[in-house]
Amino acid sequence: MPEAVAALVAFGFQELDLCKIEIAVFDYNHQSRRVAEKLGFQMEARLRERQKVGDVYYDKLIFGLLRKEWGDEHTGNL
Description:
Layout: H1 2-14, E1 20-26, H2 30-38, E2 42-53, E3 56-66
Antiparallel strand pairs: 1-3, 2-3
């Protein structure tokens, strides 16, 4: 999974010339949160009780990665 997300991030920055990429995950999805953090995304917002599943409300976490934060190992490819 991290490799697929990393490929999408590279495509977004290199081919689409994006300035920023965002990922949204629900707080119970620990694996997706780890993928975002592993790729350098930073949590920017917590939307409290955004989604109701059954009788439980879950927070939505918004992660962002700026092109300039993407990493020095990628700057040669831009």
